[in-house]
Amino acid sequence: MTETKYGIKKAVTTLPITTLPVRDLLLVPHNGHDLVVAHPAFRSGTYNARVKAMNGPYFHSEALPRVTFRPATTSESVGVSYYGFNEGGEFDAKRDIFDHAWLEAGRIGRSSEGVYANIPVDANGKPIIDEKTLKEYLNNARQVNGIWLVPNREIEGLEDFGFAPYESFKTGIIKSGVFARGGLARVLEHTNRKVAKNLAAISSTDNYPNSVNVWGFEPANKGEVLSRVAALSSDRDVGVDGLSVDGFNWDDSDNGCAFGVSESAEGA
Question: How far is C-alpha 223 from the geometric centre of its chain's CA atoms?
Answer without folding.
Answer: 26
